Amino acid sequence: MVTEDSIEKHIRNGYGQGSLKNYxxxxxxxxxxxxxxxxxxxxxxxxxxxxxxxDLELKLLNILDFSDKVIDIREQYPLLDIGSPTxxxxxxxxxxxxxxHPQYRGKNVVITTDFLITAGSDKKxxxxxxxxxxxxxxxxx
Length: 141
Hints:
By secondary structure, the chain is an alpha+beta fold. The protein has one domain: 3-Layer(aba) Sandwich (Trna Endonuclease, Chain: A, domain 1), CATH 3.40.1350.10. It has helices at 7-12, 55-66, 88-97; strands spanning 39-43, 48-52, 70-78, 103-104, 107-108, 112-119, 124-128. It has a three-stranded antiparallel sheet with strand order 3-6-7, with helices on one face. Strands 1-2 form a two-stranded antiparallel sheet. β6 (112-119) and β7 (124-128) form a beta hairpin. The chain starts with 6 loop residues before the first helix and ends in a 13-residue tail after the last strand.
C-alpha cells in the first residue's frame, strides 16, 4: 500500500504517470498479495502489460480494449489532488460521508480507481471502479 508518506517517492519512480504504452500503474500486482486472482495482461490498444487485481477487472479491461471508442486505458490510477500530490480531497470526501479514509498500519493510503479511460473523439476522461456486489457495504457509518 502506498501511504501518504511515500507519495512523492512513488511519483519520482514514475508510478501513476504516462499514457498508452508509457503509463506505469500506481499499483502493480507484485506490490502486495491479493485475496483474489490478479493478472498481468498484454493489451493491444495500449501495447503494454496491464496490472489488474481481479477477474472482474480483467473482464472490463478486455471489453475496453476491444471498444473502438476507447483511446487509452490506465489501470490502478491514483486519486491525487490536482496541482499537488496529496490526498486532502479524498480525506475530505470520507469525512463528509462519515466514513473512515482507508488506512494501512494507521497511515492514510492513496485511493486508486480501477480504470481511467480516455474515450471518443472529444477524448473524454472516465473513471471506473468495478467490485463484485457481494463486497459492497451500503451502510454509511
